[in-house]
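Tip: read the tokens left to right.
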């Protein structure tokens, strides 16, 4: 393997190499002298990038050497397949000395070659007194070594301050080099040795997408009360600022702050290829210009407190592209992953977008007081069976921590449908949300494939009330695949079908404007028993009428309607309400021989009979 040996000169005159640095043994940082400007360069104290992640090329694919049993992260300048040295102790010693001198800025240089960086096998501890700066995404890289099984950056509260700063660098989580259990590469995907068919958390508590098992995962950035003690209670607030950071291939999440109190700010952050959720947040978190790309699970997960999303984007969530790294071939797995999975109140969105995700674009789960501008584009990938979005007809994997065998190609039962994953879903007792939703499909780009969502909105009929939603739904494909604004029925977790009349109840309990019209005015399909209509609105019945419900179904072509005033044809039923009473008016639309309408009304006892009224 030929490496580039262009030489750079760092601030202290030491020779750095873009592809190679002369192999040197790791050593603790030399004594740090106090700087009048409180700015300290790691290279001045002998801390240089010593790690590289070489790739193997197999046809048009590249993968790390862990696939063939070699170290993923190797020593720069040493013989091939020599594992990189652990620099975490000298880096932490360097930061501690700066803190003891009263604090300052620790600057880590690097190489323009992103494969060269600082190799660590223990967490780098962010101290309140020390701001950690790199020289940019394309220069400063921190790499998690093989088998580290820890997070790269963790916080540590100080005696007088809990403020942390990290910026201008790249974090390589070396996802495929971690060994939580023993990875088995002989299966279609990688499985954890000992995983049984049920895959219960009690037996393998190391799922990369489980926010409650963070101590078994490795994240790019982890903010918890005490990273050495999973049961430590929250003690005071932590304030942190993360800016200009890209996190690639972490085993868990790019960043996890949902277990810590305080205020955390993310600005200009990219998460790419996370094995778990992209970014997990909570407790007064501000995210601005943050993008999550290709996580195996949800893009953004919020589980407590409140958060503000400004100019954020999640795309290809649940689309597992790089299974070849563990012997799984090309795109073989899709998960029911949402772009945004929100289960806490008081969130705010401003220009937030979800595109081409396995499940919903936005899943708002039992949340209150969420305000925002949501753009859901071409999601519903898992349910989309069109060849343009799933050319190899691969099954999906449900997003369930209990039934999901890690990384295996196991299909769902029942199979998801377009109704299963609308662009935006309000689930459970979601209420008081004020949302502006732009929902659209995606035109075919190049050779494709791209999926698309069939429905803009999904509402759970039980408890989803008092929401103010404005929806604009458009089709960018061919006009044939957009079904409607709202799902006609919802598939519950048990697979049971929620009937259309229940969905109508959810409509009238929320104020929804769709393409400029109140959705409560939308025309709906009439139920087979017209007496079950209990929600005001306009209904269309097309089929045979049977007032008493005595005609066998096999003797009637098409749908058979019970308690119907006409023999059949196209009938419009308008149901209105006044002082607690419902009134229905049925009009035959396709029969000039019926010069009348039928009117009936309800009392406290029941519906009264139809009364004919002449059209004249």
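Filled-in amino acids:
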């Amino acid at each position: 393997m030929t490496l580039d040996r262009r030489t750079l000169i760092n601030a202290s005159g030491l020779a750095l190499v873009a592809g190679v640095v002369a192999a040197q043994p790791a050593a603790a940082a030399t004594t740090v002298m106090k700087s009048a400007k409180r700015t300290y360069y790691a290279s001045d104290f002998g801390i240089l990038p010593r790690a590289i992640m070489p790739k193997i090329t197999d046809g048009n694919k590249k993968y790390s050497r862990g696939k063939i049993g070699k170290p993923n992260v190797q020593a720069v300048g040493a013989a091939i397949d020599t594992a990189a040295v652990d620099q975490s102790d000298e880096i932490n010693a360097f930061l501690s000395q700066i803190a003891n001198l009263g604090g300052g800025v620790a600057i880590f240089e690097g190489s323009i070659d992103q494969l060269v960086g600082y190799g660590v096998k223990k967490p780098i501890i962010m101290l309140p007194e020390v701001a950690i700066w790199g020289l940019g995404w394309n220069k400063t890289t921190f790499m998690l070594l093989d088998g580290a099984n820890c997070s790269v950056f963790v916080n540590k509260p100080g005696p007088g301050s809990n403020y942390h700063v990290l910026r201008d660098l790249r974090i390589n989580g070396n996802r495929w080099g971690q060994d939580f259990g023993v990875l088995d590469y002989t299966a279609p995907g990688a499985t954890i040795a000992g995983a049984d068919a049920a895959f219960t958390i009690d037996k393998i508590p190391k799922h990369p997408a489980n926010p409650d098992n963070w101590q078994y995962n490795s994240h790019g950035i982890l903010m918890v009360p005490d990273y050495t003690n999973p049961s430590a209670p929250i003690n005071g607030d932590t304030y942190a600022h993360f800016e200009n950071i890209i996190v690639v291939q972490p085993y868990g999440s790019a960043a996890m702050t949902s277990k810590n109190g305080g205020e955390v700010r993310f600005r200009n952050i990219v998460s790419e290829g996370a094995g778990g959720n992209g970014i997990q947040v909570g407790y007064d978190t501000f995210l601005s210009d943050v993008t999550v790309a290709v996580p195996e699970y949800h893009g953004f997960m919020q589980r407590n407190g409140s958060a503000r999303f400004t100019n954020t984007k999640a795309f290809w969530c649940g689309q597992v592209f790089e299974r070849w790294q563990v012997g799984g071939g090309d795109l073989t797995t899709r998960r029911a992953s949402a772009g945004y999975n929100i289960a806490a109140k008081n969130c705010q969105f401003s220009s937030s977008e979800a595109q081409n995700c396995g499940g919903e674009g936005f899943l708002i789960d039992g949340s209150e007081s969420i305000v925002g501008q949501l753009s859901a584009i071409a999601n519903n990938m898992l349910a989309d069976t069109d060849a343009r979005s799933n050319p190899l007809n691969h099954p999906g994997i449900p997003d369930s921590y209990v039934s999901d065998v890690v990384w295996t190609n196991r299909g769902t039962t029942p199979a998801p449908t377009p109704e299963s994953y609308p662009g935006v879903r309000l689930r459970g007792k979601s209420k008081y949300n004020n949302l502006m939703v732009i929902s659209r499909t995606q035109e075919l780009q190049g050779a494709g494939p791209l999926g698309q969502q069939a429905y803009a909105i999904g509402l759970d009929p039980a408890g989803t009330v008092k929401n103010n939603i404005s929806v604009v739904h458009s089709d960018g494909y061919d006009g044939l695949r957009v079904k409607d604004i709202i799902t006609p029925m919802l598939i519950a977790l048990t697979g049971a079908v929620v009937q259309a009349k229940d969905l109508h109840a959810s409509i009238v309990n929320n104020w929804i404007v769709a393409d400029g019209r109140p959705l409560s005015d939308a025309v709906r399909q009439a139920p087979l028993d017209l007496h079950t209509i209990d929600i005001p609105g306009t209904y269309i019945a097309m089929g045979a009428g049977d007032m008493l419900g005595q005609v066998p179904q096999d003797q009637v072509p098409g749908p058979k309607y019970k308690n119907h005033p006409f023999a059949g044809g196209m009938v419009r039923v308008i149901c209105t309400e006044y002082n607690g009473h419902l009134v229905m008016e049925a009009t035959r639309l396709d029969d000039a021989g019926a010069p009348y309408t039928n009117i009936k009304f309800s009392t406290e006892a029941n519906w009264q009979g139809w009364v004919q009224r002449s059209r004249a």
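Residues 524-614 form one domain. The chain is about 5% helix and 35% strand.
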